[in-house]
Amino acid sequence: MGREKKFYLVHEDILPEAIRKTAQAKAILARGEASTVHEAVEKVGLSRSAFYKYKDGIFPFYEASRGKIVTLALLLEHKAGILSNVLNTIASVRGNILTINQNLPLQGMANVTISLETAEMMQDVDGLVRTIENIAGVRSVEVVGQN
User: Quick one: how far is CA 142 from the chain centroid?
Assistant: First the structure.
């Protein structure tokens, strides 16, 4: 009987260098910045044997969240148009918004929770979060859940 695989979500800072570089090499290949594994590992300073050892064990968070439901918690300034800009940003990358919950504003700030489906998204969740963080009036964005 085989062992059940367990998955962990960890911050990249605590990963060994070879595993981080494997992820970087995979990203270079995925973006088309290298056409061979040899070229990609050379760019990040990793041996091919280390790449092949770890390549099937590490993948970016957005790959794990692809086709999932992700919940974002946002803190927004209470000004007209900010939530609309957030929703338009999600729609522009083809995120499918499932639920929106906005609490009454307190001291000029409103807590908003948005659940969205990522199956058709043209951008990874990390990139979407960074884009939303740059919208004027958005104070914070966090991924707080994933199904």
Answer: 10
